[in-house]
Amino acid sequence: MSASRTERLLNLLIALLNTKYGLRRGELREKVYHDTTSSDVAFGRMFERDKGELRQFGFDVETVTDTGWGSDDPATTRYRIGKESNRLPDVSLTPEECTVLILAAQLWEHAALGSAAVDAVRKLQAAGGLVDAELPTGVQPRIRPAGQAFEDLVAAIHAQHPVRFSYLASSTGKEQERLVEPWGLGSRFGQWYLVGHDRGRGDKRFFRLSRLTSAVTVLEKESFAPPAGFNVRAELAALAELPVQNAVVDVEQGRLLGLRKRAQAVPEPALEPGALESGLQRPAAGTDRLTVPFRDAETLGEELASYGPRVTVISPPELEGAVRRRLTAAAAFAARPVPDVAFPAAGPAGRTRKRTSEDQLKRMLQLVPFLVHNQGLHISEVAARFGITRKALEDDLRILICSGLPEGYPDDLLDIQWDDDHVFITQALDLTRPVRFTVDEACALLTGLETLNGLPELAEGGALESVTLKLMAAAGEEGLKAAALSGPEVAPGNSAILETARAAIGSGAQLHLKYFSPQRDAVSERDVDPLRLYSLDNTWYLEAYCHSAKGLRNFRLDRIEALEPNGRPAAAAAKPADSFPVKLFTPNDDDTVVVVELAPRGTGLADDYYAERTAALPGGGMLAEIRFGSTDWLPMFVAQHGGMVRILQPGALADASRDWIAAALTQYKASSDRPID
User: Fold this and answer.
1) In 114, 304, 518, 664, which residue has its Cα 20 to 30 A from 473's Cα atom?
2) Stated pTM of the model
């Protein structure tokens, strides 16, 4: 959508909003489009496209026809937009409700639903429904959507388009192409699931997103109707958890302490003699044989693949296959021809989803009511509220002041002034109330509020229930579609550790902790000044100033082996990071800048690891430039994501990751060739 088209759509919207009886197509063509050259057919196609665009923004264009002779003549058909049906109803929230709502909006870390949550909050701000609220210490949960597939599936669910993807079936261990009508998407047992109708099998099926082996293709020319009253949370609640199994693995002696904490050693007598006769081999020299409990082979396989040559799966075969498949895919990706490494000018990394100036029009529709309710704000503050530069805001304002009713007289135009850097609006042309929530916006907020039910300190109060009811009423039919999306459980697994940290934050006490670092494969003891608690999905983190590292660090609560006050006060100079969501990785001057290539399925890793620059590649892949404080674990990172990422620069790190993966694959070949005693 070009800037001229943005302006045209805005003028069309204003014209249709400000007509009581409707405007004929000929009137719109002359006064809004100023079209005198195109054919009637070409203009008709343009007008229909524009009506579709306005519908996506939440404005339904009504068709008004006169009864009697000539009522079916397109030349006599009139068009208008109703004033009330398209507007967000008034929503008045208490400070307690605002706190809960902001927490719900902040759940979505990034990507499409994160943007939708921000847009929904801006609409409430523009309508004057939000008041200042203070976020509680230690209650800042987040949800990280499961990559690009998540975004594509959410879009297909809301638009009711079928999807196609390749899927690794757990029952057969084979990849198959699936054609699915996606009904809903939710989290269960720490995994994201798609629920839908499998056209090839003619029945409802559950699909684990981690088992998708290709990008999701949305069939935009086809449609479907989901079952009436569908609720993905109820569907997933009926899904039985997988039974516990035991994996047998050989682990390099003295390594992988985290895995060993969950494992048990296989006693030597268990290898004599019947086990050997059944085909079980003795452990290789320098390894220990362990049994590790697990429920899902793909989940454990992802972890074991990251350990490369330090672990070998002996049984069961499906787990060995899961590890080999990741390692083989990583090796194949690493062996592909290297693309030219070229980035645009330095700046924040962009999303791979298509962005057009429709974002600008959406922002302007939020900007007008916001200015009406916040007269006289400094232009820099307005730009900061909308997350854009001053130049971008001034570009928006210049388009707005040139927009208005068809006649274009001074009183028919939007009147906005910012000569003294304070922005005032005196003529809003019936754009004073925000447009109603879109499906994405309603889902982002309502799913977030439902997820917060897992936090006792919020669920016990009345604010969570009351704000949910108010937003359901405001969202209308779009709010009912939120039942197609369900977030993960966010309650902490170790409430005692969390409460100790939370109490220390409140009292300003310093803490002593014992912490296991899987990257270093070691346990360390540290004194820290606790600053903030937050979660990512169902994993909780403590942000603290670490006196050993002399900087901010983020500690996973499930890796803290011991935590207690050390009797000293926290340093007053220690401050949390400026922004929220918190970055899991704190940049330092001595970080290594690494250039990686991401396959289409792995482009979400650019957001997860805060890429500083990105560049799109043909076929949907991406180059990303990322800072890493420690590079020793990068071969593990590449192996874990099996074919979704490879290192391009520095060359030494690229070689190290290839060698790591090759050694792991060679070890599997060696284990299969090793003779049985």
Assistant:
1) 114
2) 0.70
User: What letter represents residue 640's amino acid?
Assistant: Q
Element (H, E) at 247: strand 245-252
Q: What span, in angstroms and rounded, lies between the C-alpha atoms of 397 and 368?
A: 9
pLDDT in tens, 118-145: 888 888 877 776 776 666 665 667 777 7
Distance of alpha carbon 557 from alpha carbon 536, whole angstroms: 11
User: Residue for token digits 């220990």?
Assistant: 288
- pLDDT tens digits along 153-189: 988 998 899 999 999 887 676 889 999 999 999 988 8
Is the pLDDT confidence value at 562 over 50?
yes
Instruction: Provide φ and ψ at 215, rounded to 5°.
Output: -70, 160
Tens digits of per-residue pLDDT, 223-233?
999 999 899 99
Provide the 8-state DSSP code for 308: G
CB 363 within 8 A of CB 386: yes
Beta carbons of 539 and 556 less than 8 angstroms apart: yes
Contact 207, 297 (CB under 8 A): no
Q: What are phi and psi of 502, to 5 degrees?
A: -65, -40
Taking alpha carbons only, the member of 335, 340, 300, 353 closest to residue 646 is 335
Q: Which of 545, 543, 641 is nearest to 584 (CA)?
A: 543
Which residues of 439-591 form beta strands (DSSP E)? 485-486, 509-517, 522-536, 539-546, 551-556, 560-569
Residue 34's contacts (CB-CB under 8 Å, 6 or more residues apart) are none
Instruction: Please give the angle made by the CA atoms of 211, 154 and 99, to the nearest 5 degrees.
Output: 115
Largest Cα separation within the chain, whole Å, is 97
Instruction: Report the distance separating Cα 77 and Cα 64, nearest Å.
Output: 6
Residue given tokens 């057919």 in the structure block: 41
Which residue, among 392, 347, 375, has the nearest Cα to 432 in the 3D structure? 375
Q: Which helix (H) or strand (E) holds 90?
A: none
- Which tens digits make up the pLDDT trace of 434-480? 888 888 888 888 988 888 877 766 666 688 889 899 989 888 888 88
CA–CA separation, 604 vs 353, rounded Å?
10
Instruction: Tell me the backbone φ, ψ of residue 582, rounded to 5 degrees.
Output: -75, 140
Task: Give the span between the Cα atoms of 200 and 197, in whole angstroms.
Answer: 9
Beta carbons of 423 and 379 less than 8 angstroms apart: yes
Compute the distance between CA of residue 617 and CA of residue 440 in angstroms, rounded to an integer.
28
Q: Please identify which residue in the block is written with the tokens 């050694």.
A: 663
Taking a C-beta distance cutoff of 8 angstroms, is the pair 168, 468 a contact? no
Query: Which pLDDT value is given to residue 349?
Result: 46
Tokens describing residue 18: 């400000």
Whether the per-residue pLDDT at 51 is higher than 80: the answer is yes
Task: Tell me which of 184-188, 324-328, 548-552 is least confident.
Answer: 548-552
**Is 90 exceeded by the pLDDT of residue 75?**
no
Contact 441, 482 (CB under 8 A): no
**Whose CA is closest to 204, among 180, 230, 225?**
180
**DSSP-H helix ranges across 531-596:** none
Neighbours of 452 (CB within 10 A): 23
- What DSSP line would sit under 181-192, residue for residue? EEEEEEEETTEE
Secondary-structure breakdown of the chain: helix, strand, coil percentages, each rounded to the nearest 5:
40, 25, 35
Count of Cβ atoms closer than 10 Å to residue 35 Cβ: 14
